[in-house]
Amino acid sequence: MPKSIVLGCLLAASIPLAAQPAAAQVGGDVAIGYSYLTNNELAANATSLPAGVFFDMSAQVNDFVSIAMDINGHFRRGIEPSTMYAGGPNDMPVRPLENQDFQAFSFNRPENEYCSPILELSGCHVHIQTVGAVAGPRLHVQAGGARPFFHLMGGVSRSLRKIGFFAHTATHLAIQPGGGVDISMTPNTAFRIQADYRMTFFPEPNQADPGSQSSLVSNDGVDFRDFKLSFGFVFNLGSRRN
User: Fold this and answer.
1) Taking Cα atoms as reference points, which of 63, 67, 38 lies closest to residue 138?
2) In a domain, 163, yes or no
3) Rounded distance, CA 92 to CA 89, Å?
4) Is residue 82 part of a domain?
5) pLDDT computed for residue 163 by the predictor
6) What rounded mean pLDDT belongs to the chain?
7) In which domain, by residue range, is 120 found?
8) Among 36, 42, 43, 136, fewest CB within 10 Å belongs to which?
9) For the domain that residue 38 is a member of, what is the CATH number?
């Protein structure tokens, strides 16, 4: 299914919910805490981005539905550069560096080839960071002191990869279904455990003309599929009917 259709469906699902009468608006909540993200391909020698934080806010439409937004950031420093090609088995021969840049070679050049002899004196490492911003409908169920929820969100993911003096940022569409549970601590606070599956959509690499590639790419244009695990505290805003 085309990416624009996926995000369009998310928006269409949210509009009727947001159009509920004002009397049904019964508050919302904000949440903040720690977040862990698996790493698909942004760095060859790293399987996760363990340093992360999330901020979540939601406006409740009725007893069971709210509109939520999740902003999260993850990073990792000091990753050893890989000697393997970032692309697939059909990599084209590496072109001369003149008139090319890191964006053009991000999918068919070994990471360590961006490390100059000068940088090698103090070590050459890969630095990764990614920020996601997604929003969509969230469904809730009250079960005693726990409040399980499920959501389907869509938005963007912006990533940065830096090797030595070479850096590249790129923004891509993303969808993030997931769910979790809020466990009551006090009448207005709760502890949240949340798990999400994030798919980031990447373009197909143009192996015939890598210099024309304007965005960070993956193996043969394969979309990134990562898991996000979050723990944090929830603070209720206004009244909430259970």
Assistant:
1) 67
2) yes
3) 9
4) yes
5) 80
6) 75
7) 3-237
8) 36
9) 2.40.160.20
